[in-house]
TrEMBL record:
Its cofactor is [4Fe-4S] cluster; FAD; siroheme; [2Fe-2S] cluster. Residues 326-394 form the NADH-rubredoxin oxidoreductase C-terminal domain. GO terms for biological process: nitrate assimilation. Siroheme binds at residue 690. Transmembrane segments: none annotated. Residues 565-627 form the Nitrite/Sulfite reductase ferredoxin-like domain. PROSITE patterns: NIR_SIR. It comes from Stutzerimonas zhaodongensis. Pathway: Nitrogen metabolism; nitrate reduction (assimilation). Residues 13-290 form the FAD/NAD(P)-binding domain. GO terms for molecular function: 2 iron, 2 sulfur cluster binding; 4 iron, 4 sulfur cluster binding; flavin adenine dinucleotide binding; heme binding; metal ion binding; NADP binding; nitrite reductase activity. This is Nitrite reductase large subunit. Residues 428-475 form the BFD-like [2Fe-2S]-binding domain. Keywords: 2Fe-2S, 4Fe-4S, FAD, Flavoprotein, Heme, Iron, Iron-sulfur, Metal-binding, Nitrate assimilation, Oxidoreductase.
Length: 852
């Protein structure tokens, strides 16, 4: 029998720090086989294993330490790594080559410092307790949550990246949030003055107070709130808690005490091979200083970790030469992008600026002195320009004849850079340093699946900002090699949504199981194909969404025909066509809301939303609404939501057409129409546009001669103006064009694709669409109109359909054998109405309290 020989691990390697960079270094060491050479010890001061600090704010949205963790709980042990969590390293004894910890001493041959940074708190008199909170670790967030439990207002000191994240966290805890910044603009490192002003306008529009050019001199006891911040200009601001996010400092205390070389502005000095002044000790991430610079983003830290792991394993590595500090992120829901020399500090730099004060949007493009290269950019409000500008900046790509076109708004959306224009050296994923060339190598090695590519390269698994560009390049390179790009809906259907729609229509298929049996694989389907097929079936045949053949295909909102809210209750939205409602119906809504103690709010779509209904209450609420003359408003579905209107010529002295009458006609015709994504209409009685029709999927604006039709606009994460499609239409022609447009969209769009994105993807653009819809170039007009009429004729209120069917009603129970509500749902009163109890308030609820 041959004996199994276990390799002798000749050296001990210690990693101090188990943050994102330290963990990535360990991952790289494991992947490169370092465990056959080293005994690896990892020391983490926090109790939790490495977690994702990039998404730290999601901790207040329900995520816990496990869901934020960078690896499974047994990852280190399974690979033979000695993990020491909650253990502080007290000293590095360089002479004996040992670390001194709370557990004792541990010898090392090589040592990696990955201790990260700590939040800087200015020495302000009175800053202590809840007036000296910081936003860095999960324990810090627990402290903020506890402080917020009895607070009304919170202030963040610092208007940088983390400061705005902290302000968002305070808002999520239900506090009135304010930001105090010493500089004259927000994000002073990344943004110029105009960019900072645009960001300020957007942040203030979200209800966050912004106080610029303010230095806090002292913190004293407040009068109305717990504390008062006295500023250097004589002004003051009261608050219940204060979170400091005034920058970070390298966590270099161990290096200092071990007498390693420290940079003048902090940080353990490293060379291009990440070595400190002691050849046995290395430093990476935010605790390291290279050429006097500390890099506070995760991507440079990952680059350091990756190359150091290669060096320690004797593999080729890239000496460190600095890092691109460009960043793309969303702060309080606002797109912010900064690339390269955003301040145009380079001698001779030239700038183009686009300023949209109405929408608080701003874009700046910075060019080299000769005007031939992009060297920087600033984006506020729309990051769809970011990927293209970054590639121009990183790869020196030749500029178009008019460089301003790179930041100017276009009817087709932001300009995009074709994958073929990118050199192989172009970095697609900065987190994991994946280039276009690396993607091509994986394709040449046989990878043809995007998921496999991500697993092999880790591209797109960091911050996720590169996903769209990665997919574009991957599919382009596959096509260039003659490989047919798989556009299957999912593993169960080797067809696109468009192809499945055609199959359902041609073959008259009316159930998911029938479609799966004839044209799919497997027996059950998945979360991708089920809702997509459910939408197709509903679009074609307008079956009630609660029918047995459709109900397993829908998400929670569609299943229960109401929108689930964060505390497990539901909101109910009856249809108020065109925003027109009688006094009797208003009274009925008030009576029903009062009876069931529902929170009521008027929506932006001229409807009334009733919040806080429990599952078992829904059928009763629907019954009373139907008796009062209402029907479902389909707020839960990918379907027509609203047709917003002004009062038009009926009342308004400027109105030239009856906008309310047209809105009622359109909403009555298209209510219940299922589509790939939600759709909204607007009808304005004159060009003053009070119904905001040009921001809708279908916009109708009255003229002296009829109606102008606009199409493919939307609000949401990426707002887009609708485009003028046809002018001076009579009523019947208007309806015909809308019929054709909507049915052509439903027939050809991809799953969950908005009309705006679908329109942008059409080859031939708006002119092609006009030829199809107006000129009937495909001879489809009659067919599209007939399809729409079938849907219209088969309409039935889904609420009414459900409450008359005892089998369907069985689903609306919290407990199978009991009509009681959910005992875990709690409310508190605020401004005369009840609202959900925030997580931070749960401890305030008496044990004996009855569920409201």
């Amino acid at each position: 029998m041959n004996a199994i020989i276990t390799p002798i691990k000749s050296e001990t390697l210690i990693v101090i720090g188990n943050g994102m960079v330290g963990h990535h270094c360990v991952e790289q060491l494991i992947d490169r086989g370092a465990l056959s050479q080293y005994q690896l010890h990892v020391y983490g001061e926090e109790r939790q294993r490495a977690y994702d600090r990039v998404h730290l704010s999601e901790y207040f949205g329900g995520r816990d330490a496990d869901s934020l963790a960078m690896c499974e709980a047994d990852y280190y042990a399974a690979h033979g790594v000695h993990m020491h969590l909650g253990v502080q390293v007290l000293e590095i004894d360089r002479e004996r080559k040992e670390v001194v910890t709370s557990e004792g001493r541990q010898a090392y041959d090589k040592l990696i410092l990955a201790t990260g940074s700590y939040p800087f708190v200015p020495p302000i008199p009175g800053a202590e307790g809840n007036s000296r909170l910081v936003y860095r670790t999960l324990d810090d967030l627990d402290a903020i949550r506890a402080a917020a439990s009895n607070a009304k207002r919170g202030v963040v000191v610092g208007g940088g990246l983390l400061g705005l994240e902290a302000a968002n966290a305070l808002k999520s805890l239900g506090l009135e949030a304010h930001v105090v910044e010493f500089a004259p603009r927000l994000m002073p490192v990344q943004l110029d003055d105009e960019g900072g002003e645009a960001l300020k306008a957007r942040i203030e529009a979200l209800g966050v107070g912004v106080h610029l050019s303010r230095a806090t001199q002292e913190i004293v006891i407040g009068e109305e709130y717990a504390y008062r911040m006295n500023f250097n200009d004589g002004d003051c601001l009261e608050t219940d808690l204060i979170v400091f996010s005034a920058g970070i400092r390298p966590q270099d205390a161990l290096g200092r005490s071990a007498e390693l070389e420290i940079a003048p502005r902090g940080g353990v000095v490293i060379d291009t091979d990440y070595r400190t002044s002691d050849p046995s000790i290395f430093a990476i991430g935010e605790c390291a200083s290279w050429n006097g610079m500390v890099f506070g983003l995760v991507a440079p830290g990952y680059t350091m970790a990756r190359n150091l792991a290669a060096l320690l394993c004797g593999e080729p590595h890239q000496p460190f030469s600095g890092a691109d500090m460009s960043t793309k992120l969303k702060l309080l829901g606002v797109d912010v992008g900064s690339i390269g020399d955003a301040h145009a500090a380079t001698p001779g730099a030239k700038s183009y600026r686009f300023i949209d004060e109405a929408n608080a949007s701003y874009r700046r493009l910075v060019l080299s002195e000769d005007g031939k290269r992009v060297i920087g950019a600033v984006l506020i409000g729309d990051n769809s320009y970011y990927d293209t500008l970054l590639q121009y900046a990183q790869n020196g790509i030749k500029l178009p004849a008019d460089p301003s076109s790179l930041i100017l708004p276009l009817s087709d959306g932001a300009p995009t850079l074709g994958a073929d224009a990118l050199p192989d050296t172009a970095t697609l994923c900065s987190c994991h340093n994946v280039t276009k060339g690396a993607v091509c190598c994986q394709i040449d090695a046989g990878i043809t699946d995007l998921g496999e590519l991500k697993a092999a390269t880790k591209a797109g698994t960091g911050c996720g900002g590169c996903s769209a560009l990665l997919k574009q390049v991957f599919e382009h390179e596959l096509t260039a090699r003659g490989v047919e790009v798989d556009k299957s809906l999912c593993e169960h259907f080797a067809h696109t949504r468009q192809e499945l729609y055609g199959i359902v229509r041609v073959e008259g298929i009316i159930s998911f199981n029938e479609l799966l049996a004839k044209h799919g694989r497997g027996h059950t389907g998945c979360d991708i194909c089920k809702p997509a097929v459910g939408s197709i079936l509903a679009s074609c045949w307008n079956q009630p969404i609660t029918d047995p053949g459709l109900i397993p295909l829908q998400d929670t909102n569609d299943t229960f025909m109401a929108n689930m809210q964060k505390n497990g209750t539901y909101s109910v939205v009856p249809r108020i066509a065109g925003g027109e409602i009688t006094p009797d119906k208003l009274i009925a809504l008030g009576v029903i809301a009062k009876k069931y103690d529902l929170y009521t709010k008027i929506t932006g779509g001229q409807r009334i939303d009733l919040f806080g209904a429990q599952l078992h209450e829904l059928p009763d609420i629907w019954s009373e609404l139907i008796e009062a003359g209402f029907e479902t408003g389909h707020a839960y579905g990918k379907s027509l939501r609203t047709v917003k209107s002004c009062v038009g010529s009926t009342w308004c002295r400027y109105g030239v057409q009856d906008s309310v009458g047209m809105a009622l006609r359109l909403e009555d015709r298209y209510k219940g129409l299922r589509s790939p994504h939600k759709i909204k209409f607007g009808v304005s009685g004159c060009t003053r546009e009070c119904a905001e029709a040009q921001s809708k999927d279908i916009g109708v604006i009255a003229t002296e001669n009829g109606w102008n039709l606009y199409v493919a606009g939307n609000g949401g994460m990426r707002p887009r103006h609708a485009e003028l499609f046809a002018t001076d239409l009579d009523d019947e022609t208007l309806v015909r064009y809308i019929d054709r447009f909507l049915m052509f969209y439903i027939r050809t769009a991809d799953k969950l694709q908005r009309t705006s994105v679908w329109r942008e993807s059409l080859e031939g653009g708006l002119d092609y669409l006009k030829k199809v819809i107006i000129d009937d170039s495909l001879n489809l007009a009659a067919e599209l109109e007939a399809q729409m009429q079938l849907v219209v004729d088969r309409y039935e209120c889904e609420w009414a359909n459900a409450i008359k069917d005892p089998e369907k009603l069985k689903r609306f129970r919290t407990f199978v054998n009991d009509r009681r509500g959910d005992p875990d749902i709690h409310f508190v009163k605020e401004r005369g109405q009840r609202r959900p109890v925030h997580a931070s308030e749960l401890h305030l609820i008496p044990v004996t309290e009855e569920v409201l």
